[in-house]
Amino acid sequence: MTTENDPGSAGITPVRFDTKIAVLLRDDLEPWQRLNVTAFLVSGLGSELPEVVGEAYEDADGTAYLPMFRQPVLIFEGSKETLRTAHTRALSRALPRALFTSDLFTTGNDRDNRAAVRAVGTADLDLVGLAVYGPRNAVDKVMKGARMHP
């Protein structure tokens, strides 16, 4: 649910969402890895949670563009231990989540990606990224200890 004002009204206040999308990246990733992991993680949220996707875009000439998330995605970073703790918190709160493990850097397709994750138990996953969606306060608790990405 959002707090939105009619775009035609004077004195528009900023939109405030009662949900949050957050991505946590391990702090030892290379720049290209950070971008790749973030893109993969957020794609999982949009495909399973249609409420996070806004309406399609159109420019003044009528050219159509794909819809995007209706709210900002906050990017955090933290140590391997911070990521493991956040993962445990997300699981205990049953929040919608997507993960990226270090093994996925060595695979080249979706089938092998899923097999690489399936081959490792939850406690032994070598997490490099985690995306979480849910109520603001729950996501804040999951991300506790992480810092905003520079």
Write up what this structure looks like.
- Helices cover 31% and strands 25% of the residues.
- By secondary structure, the chain is of the alpha+beta class.
- The strands form three sheets. Strands 7-8-3-6-9 form a five-stranded mixed beta sheet, sandwiched between helices.
- Residues 1-9 have low confidence and may be disordered.
Q: Whole-Å distance between the termini?
A: 29 Å
**SSE arrangement, N to C:** EEEHEEEHEHEHE
Low-pLDDT segments: 1-9
- The overall strand count is 9
Helix content: 25-40%
Overall, the morphology is: globular
What order do the strands of the largest sheet run in, or round the barrel if closed?
7-8-3-6-9
Instruction: Give the percentage of residues in beta strands.
Output: 25-35%
Overall residue-averaged pLDDT value: 91
Radius of gyration: 17 Å
Structural class: alpha+beta
Outline the biggest β-sheet: 5 strands, mixed
Number of helical segments? 4
